[in-house]
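Sequence of AcrR family transcriptional regulator (Sphingobium vermicomposti).
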Amino acid sequence: MQMLIQHSSGVTMNALITASGLSRKTVYARYPNMSALLLSVLRQMLDFEMAPLVMPEGPDWRRRLRAFIGILLDEMSEPHAHVLRRILLMDSSLFEEVKPRIEQLMVDRYINPLNAFFTDLVERDLIPPQDTMFAAETLMQMVLQEAQRCFFDDGVDKDSSIFVCKVARLICGGLVAGPDMLEP
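Predicted 3D structure, token representation.
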């Protein structure tokens, strides 16, 4: 995996075999080509249970949400997330194979906790009634898009706090908007 982090699409089967210390025969018996090897790595990366991300505690729901967005963006920018993106860029045909698992991880770890948080805010009359699942999914898409931008910009914008603050302000402002403001 370290070679995938460092060399991205430039890594070859021969380089991986050499780094592994295994014989070519052993590796090719298990992985007949690079796609099979990459698919195995992807499955291994995605074959674990991740507990739902816990919403940070605090008296102000807006600050709690901002902290959650920061944690979410940090996770989406960790090396394992970059490896996942690199592998999918190396062989995009693998995406369909792992897409259901990626989607399930996103829902279980990030979207469901956000939805529960927003639903709780509605139930406590802190925000007006609204489609909380849509709000959670939209926020998730915004963070994923920023993580993707940073990945392709090679991490140029290392200070994620500006994005986190702007998105938190945008989401918080939208959540408290009355339904009449949003009707056509």
